[in-house]
Design a protein that fits this description.
Length: 425
């Protein structure tokens, strides 16, 4: 590998692994997410020439953080100079709590209690401001804090890329227009922001568990980051059942990671996975968290999702899975979270309990929901049910529809294999 290629690879790796940490540290200096994002982008751009000239630093994240912070402080100083030189040409603005200038000068700034110990988790809580709609909170945080590309965020919300880009832009404008300060929430404010924070971590995990695009089925860096955040959140709020439920869900789902793809990177169906290779320690930890969550009164969506995933994982074999219990848990989940994706996922165990026919009837009903119009798993599930019902002609059309919507190479290869295996007579 050439020196230039090595530098570009190091920067790409640092962007993938360290973006959230660098941005979180920079926004504390900048006091403004737009300015912080701009400074971090400039730091990454500057690294190309600097690292090529001076060598790749031993700690890329520290180098990038220092460079981004310096740019933020320079920008604040320029703004301060501008204001001091034009005192008669601009109207004095009302004091805004926790402004970037206050951070630099020390004026009127008191650091709130250090409720959230991790920089990245702090920024997630900060971005999940109650002045924004929850979907805007989650989308903005996934895009800017977690570094998830806008198309992938759009897929997570079952909307088009332009719609999601506009939603993120509106959220940023509202923050700027309403002068919402980027300050760390105090301990008393954390429970009001918990729901979107849980959603951010869950969607971050989902994006890593099955990467929306690329050659690999899993993005391990996102999976590991989300589990680490969930653990920190559990330590921060140990008495919250849904926090325990989220951690359990991530652990039991990730326990199968080593068997979800073969040595060649091809997707392996659940029924064909080697259960002896599943992470039993993670499953055991998840089980304890789930039991505690189910005993704590009415379980929430993450506890129920974790219980469903645990039933899949703890079955001795695929045929021995407790399908009726899974359907029952899905019914309970739908009662508190009527998501079309949940309803679609329920058709999989329903087919094992009632047969593919009734499950197909449910899928056909869900086709009328516009939120699932571009969701690749709907035609994929429908194709499998049609195949099991002996309708290869109709199954073929659905596999092709799923392929047209799928952008992950491992999933595309799997769908192509299923399509090729259909009888042609």
């Amino acid at each position: 590998m050439s020196e230039r290629a090595a530098v570009e690879a190091a920067i790409a790796d640092a962007h993938r692994r360290e973006w959230a940490l660098v941005l979180a540290a920079t926004v504390r200096v900048a006091g403004d997410l737009d300015l912080a994002e701009e400074c971090v982008q400039e730091a990454y751009a500057a690294a190309i020439e600097s690292w090529a000239r001076d060598g790749i630093p031993a700690n890329p994240a520290a180098w990038l953080t220092t460079a981004a912070k310096r740019r933020a402080m320079d920008a604040i100083r320029r703004e301060r100079t501008f204001r001091s030189k034009l005192p008669l040409l601009i109207e004095p603005e009302e004091a805004v709590e926790d402004t970037a200038m206050d951070r630099l000068t020390g004026e009127q700034y008191n650091e709130p209690d250090d409720a959230v110990p991790d920089e990245r988790l702090r920024l997630i809580f900060t971005c999940c401001h109650p002045a924004l709609a929850q979907e805007a909170q989650v989308a903005l945080t996934l895009r800017l804090v977690c570094g998830i590309p806008t198309p992938d965020v759009a897929r997570a919300f079952l909307v088009s890329e332009p719609t999601m880009a506009a939603r993120i832009t509106r959220a940023k404008k509202k923050i700027s227009g309403a002068r919402i300060p980027y300050r760390l929430p105090r301990s008393a404010e954390l429970p009001d922001r918990l729901r979107p924070v849980l959603a951010v971590i869950h969607l971050l995990f989902t994006t890593g568990h099955t990467a929306p695009t690329g050659a690999d089925l899993v993005r391990a860096d996102l999976v590991e980051r989300s589990i680490a955040l969930a653990r920190m959140l559990r330590d921060l709020m140990p008495d919250e059942p849904e926090v325990r439920g989220l951690l359990a869900l991530l652990l039991v789902t990730d326990a199968r990671r080593a068997t979800r793809a073969d040595a060649a990177g091809r997707l392996v169906r659940l029924e064909d996975q080697d259960r002896s290779l599943w992470d039993r320690n993670a499953m055991s930890e998840a089980h304890d968290l789930i039991v505690a969550g189910l005993r704590g009164g009415q379980p929430g969506r993450y506890v129920l999702q974790a219980a469903i995933a645990s039933l899949y994982a703890e079955a001795p074999s695929f045929p021995e899975t407790d399908w009726p219990q899974i359907v029952e848990l899905y019914d309970r989940l739908l009662a508190i979270w009527p998501s079309p994706v949940v309803a679609l996922n329920r058709t999989v165990p329903l087919a094992m309990v009632a047969g593919p026919g009734p499950a197909l009837d449910e899928v056909v009903k869900l086709e009328q929901d516009p939120r699932l119009s571009g969701y690749q798993y709907l035609p994929a599930i429908k194709a499998d049910l049609l195949r099991r019902l002996g309708r290869p002609d109709l199954a073929s059309a659905e596999y092709r529809a799923a392929l047209a919507l799928t952008t992950n190479d491992a999933e595309r290869a799997f769908l192509s294999e299923q399509l090729a295996s259909l009888p042609t007579d």
